[in-house]
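I am writing to request your help with a piece of structural work I have in hand. Thank you for your consideration; the sequence and its C-alpha cells are set out here:
=====
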Amino acid sequence: MPNESTPESAPESAPAAQTITSATMPQPMRELRDDNGRRIAVTFESAHPPFPSAANDSWLVAIDGSEHAMNALAMAERLSTEAGVRVLDLVNVQPWLSKEAANHELAPRGWAIAADACAKLGAKDFAWRLHILMGEPARRIVEQAEALGSRGIVIGARGLTATEALLIGSVALRVIHTAHGSVLVVRHPEPFGKLPQR
C-alpha cells in the first residue's frame, strides 16, 4: 500500500517569486512511496499564485514535453479562463524505475519535461499543481483524474492514423476508452473557425 508524505524539506511558507526553469526545481509538496520505499509519485505546486487548498473541478492536462501536449495546455488554459477558474492540474507519467532510480530521478525527469508548461502558466497568473507519476501512462492519467475529481482530462493528439493507432497504440486512445469522465483530445489549440488554412 502506498504511503503519502510531505517531504521534510518542503517550505512552510511560500518562497519569493522566481523564474521557473528546469534548473530551479522547487521542493516537492508531497510524495508517495510504495511498500518498498520506492518513490512512485511526486507533487509540486505553484507558489505565485499559490495553488488553492480547496481546488477542485479543474482540468487535468497530460504533459509529455511534446508540441501536442502544449496544444492541450493552451486549450485547457482557454477553457479554464472562460469558466473563470485560473487553476490547472498537470500530470507527467514516467516509466517504471528501480527504487534507487525512482528515488533520485523521478522528480527531476518529470520536472525537466513540465518546467516550461509550469512557467507558462505562472507567467499568466495561473495556479498549477504538477503530479509526476510512475507507471503505464493511460492508466495513471485516468487514476489521477479520478483521485482529484477533475472536471476532465485534456490530452494532445499525436496525429496517428487509425491503422497506426491499432498497431502501435495511443495513450490518448487508451485514456478515452478507460476514463469514466470527460476527455478532450486536442490536435490544435485554436477552435475550428480560427484554424490556419492548409
